[in-house]
Amino acid sequence: MRFVVRLGIDSVPVVIEYSYTPEMPEKINGPMEDCYPAEAAEVHIESATIGGKRVWQLLSPEYKQHIDNEALLHALDSADDFRAKKSDHERAQREEF
After folding, report:
1. Which of 32, 50, 57, 94 is deepest in the core (most CB within 10 A)?
2. Tens place of pLDDT per residue across the chain (97 aa)
3. Rg of the chain over CA atoms, in angstroms?
4. Which residues pair with 5 in a beta bridge?
5. Residues 76, 80, 85, 90: is their CA dihedral positive or negative?
6. Domain boundaries defined on the chain
7. How are beta strands 53-54 and 2-7 bridged, if at all?
8. Largest Cα–Cα distance of the chain, in whole Å?
C-alpha cells in the first residue's frame, strides 16, 4: 500500500510504501490445539522516499514512529472503506433477488 505523509516544518511530502497484516482475533473455543491468542494489526514500512530517493535510514526515531502510526491509520481506514464497499455491494445483490 502507498500513501504520502508530510513531515517537518516545511511539510516535505514523503512517499511511504508499506505492507499490512490485519489483526487476528483470539480463538478460545474448540480443541486446545486449534486455539490461539489474539494478534494485533501490524504494518511494515517497505520504503520512504523523497523525490525518488530512499530516506528511511535518515529519519529520526520520532519521524519513524509517526510514520508507523500514520501507516496503521491509513491501513485501517482502507480496510474500513473496503468492508463498507463490500457490504454495500452484497446488500445491492440481495436486493436484486
Report:
1. 50
2. 888 988 887 889 999 999 999 888 999 998 999 999 999 889 999 999 999 999 999 999 999 999 999 999 998 888 765 565 555 556 666 665 5
3. 19
4. 14
5. positive
6. 2-96
7. unpaired
8. 57
Report d(CA 70, CA 59) in Å as an integer. 15
Cell of 67: 510514520
**Share in percent of the chain as helix, strand, coil (round to 5):** 45, 30, 25
Cβ contact 17:10 at 8 Å: no
Cβ-count burial 15-32 (b if 16+ within 10 Å, e if not): ebebebeeeeeeeeeeee
First vs last Cα of the chain: how many Å apart? 36
